[in-house]
Amino acid sequence: MTSDERRDHDRDLRRRADEQGGAGKELGTTPARYVERARVERAKNLLETGDQPLDAVARGSGFGSPETMRRAFARALGVTPAAYRARFRSTVDGCPS
After folding, report:
1. Domains of the chain
2. DSSP conformation letters of 11-73
3. What is the Cα–Cα distance from 78 to 65, expressed in whole angstroms?
4. Which one of 15, 31, 65, 89 is CB 3.0 to 4.6 Å from 23, fit for a cystine?
5. What pTM did the predictor assign?
6. pLDDT tens-digit profile of 19-49?
């Protein structure tokens, strides 16, 4: 996701929240936290399904840097993106096919 696409996405989310009477009411959180959660979910998907380096995952999920993604993961999941990938892969690898 390019910075222009990320900005447009964020603007669209804010507009939707405003149309719904405010983010706090409808989303149950601030627009910034909502966007961060959406980015974490996208990053989780990329980590689960691909082998991209962490900087590519960060860019592809809308984070400005791998460090920003790492901090968001720590807040949301209590683990780093690298630990999440390793844990997910060990779980998948450990399951019978």
Report:
1. 3-94 (1.10.10.60)
2. HHHHHHHHHTT-HHHHTSS-HHHHHHHHHHHHHHHHHHH----HHHHHHHTT-SSHHHHHHHH
3. 18
4. 31
5. 0.70
6. 655 545 566 888 899 999 999 999 999 999 9
